[in-house]
Amino acid sequence: MTSAISPTPVIVIRPVQYRDLKAIESLAVSASLEDNCRSSVTFLQNLEQVRHWFGLLKVLSMLPNPFKRYFCLYVAESPDGEIQGVIQVSPFNISRSTWRVEQVHGESVASLSDPKGTAAQLVRHCLESIWEARTWVLEINIHQKENLALYRQHGFQPLAELTYWCLNPQLLTQLAEIDPDLPNLLPVSNADAQLLYQLDCVSMPPLLRQVFDRHIQDFKTGLVDSLARRWQNLWGDTEVCRAYVFEPQRKAAIGYFEIILSKNDNQPHQGKLTVHPAYTWLYPKLLSQMAKISQKYPDKPLELISADYQPERQEYLEKLGSERVEHTLLMSRSVWHKLREGKAEGLALAEVLQGLQAVPRTPIPSRINWLKWPYGSVELEPPEANPVKGSNAPVDSQKPPKNGHHA
User: Are residues 318 and 288 in the same domain?
Assistant: First the structure.
């Protein structure tokens, strides 16, 4: 008598609850120790902040507001109540047509590449349940082989290569001594959203522009975000400074920078640069301006990002003596990637095209029935109707005389 095979335990995927935070923290700590990635460290910092405001965020997630998807986490729970994995996703643009996978953690890094594992089920759950998403993006360290295998199994394709650079405080001090000479440097407001949107579109390849799917509203700051940013600047650990360079002749923005200044010793300054491809000479000027601003805060290194489609920026940062910190891969996936077309009934496409191809045949000579002359149309008779037979001279009795008079 054969023994019955016990069924495989079913994993329940659900939104995060407050009692799950401790188990999620232990998963993130083990993952950060194994891969030593900055994204895991950032996730732990955000998790500590969410712990204090979890109740408020839970209420906001039930109401239509900008913070509805601020902390969107799903956990994989076993039948005995143990948390075996967690995934964090967030909308990438204001229209929520593009979403971003922030973090995926499982019981172990080796289990991430398992097609039937917990991490794979979490990714598939987000791809199937979040109906707003048309495109998914993520950023992953090139050394995380297991995570890379997980995303490749679910249809994510490389989009761009990103390099993180670090400018040490001594280098920032040298740059701050240079006069940037930017007379048209203006502060950013919502009235400049159209200019910043045009600069963002022209500064990236068409494929990235299509994937990001940003609009003018993505470059505007709402009332709630504006109040939160002011509170952060006054009482938080960071302060944000933004400005752009205006080109008065073409009425366009040709350069933009945003710098997140750190007020404590835990993290460095973080900068973001957007430069028009035709104005790459702005790189040293904008960096000098950012270095001047950073001198008012504690001596910290400045982190910048360059992409493989920005060779001028990478070349300048290398000549400047910046240090490469991390190399990541930007990947994307469309929701239509894995759809399979059903086989059409009837004739196949190759058979239809074969029937439309030209068949070689022997050419058949034909005669011209009408020949247009300057004096009118003359019908040519067949050779049998010629009055003179055997003569090689052509017979043209109806040809008018040269002097224009008829005989």
Answer: yes
